[in-house]
Specification:
This protein is mainly β and 233 residues long. The chain contains 4 helices and 17 strands. The chain has 2 domains: 97 residues, no CATH class; 105 residues, no CATH class.
Length: 233
């Protein structure tokens, strides 16, 4: 059987921390012991729910939850009959939220039966991470729609680096109030990019549509144009 090529992975132009789809994820730490209930939203509408447990006895350091899987019934919460070991996390671990299919996903997570969320994936806070991979070698522009910071991204076709992606360190971007540092990055195609959040943020990465050959030139030009506005903040 021939492998199926997912064309949507090569045509996506917007990557949004508040509206999850393929190639992006949001990572949050729940360091208080207890049971957490979460609601899944798609394009703002209820799409499913799940629960998980934070237990000091657990040795699990990462819990990965596919929001699209919850929405279409492929995954349920730890108290709905699944093996609880798959839904229990150490307080020193992290929950990674992603959507393997479709777009527009977010989650609201509350403690116990409370309605007030302790985590809202559409508004990241200090300590959260937003991770993504950009496949197409071209230019992108990252904007924090809450904090106001900006950065330019020029994805390079680099066979030497992409041959060893598993051992390739991600590129890190620090997100502060009105800033992203570094404010220009040049990752290899499919190399991980991680935005470290230090203030309330919603990161949106938009493809500019420039050709790979023009990537560096356009990146530097756009950053020079943005520089005066950033310096005033």
């Amino acid at each position: 059987m021939q492998p199926t090529i997912r064309r949507d992975l090569f045509t996506q132009e917007v990557f949004d921390s508040g509206s999850l789809g393929p190639l992006v994820s949001v990572i949050h730490r729940f360091d208080c012991e207890g049971t957490y209930s979460a609601r899944v939203l798609r394009h703002g509408a209820p799409a499913g729910s799940f629960t998980f447990i934070v237990d000091p006895q657990s040795e699990t350091r990462q819990l990965s939850i596919d929001l699209s899987g919850v929405a279409d019934g492929r995954h349920s919460g730890c108290c709905d009959g699944d093996d609880p070991s798959h839904w229990v996390l150490s307080p020193s671990g992290y929950v990674l939220f992603y959507a393997s299919r479709g777009r527009g996903y977010a989650t609201l997570v509350a403690e116990g039966d409370q309605r007030q969320p302790v985590f809202d994936s559409s508004m990241l806070r200090a300590g959260d991470l937003f991770a993504l991979s950009l496949i197409e070698p071209t230019t992108y522009h990252a904007t924090d729609r809450i904090g106001g910071g900006k950065a330019g991204i020029a994805v390079k076709r680099d066979p030497k680096r992409t041959r060893n992606l598993r051992n390739l360190e991600p590129v890190y971007v620090e997100v502060g109030q009105g800033t992203m540092q570094p404010h220009e990055i040049e990752p290899a195609s499919a190399q991980g990019i991680v935005f470290r959040i230090n203030t309330e943020s919603r990161i949106v990465v938009q493809k500019t549509g420039k050709t790979p050959d023009d990537a560096s030139r356009v990146l530097h030009r756009s950053l020079r144009a943005d520089a005066p506005a950033q310096n005033k903040m």
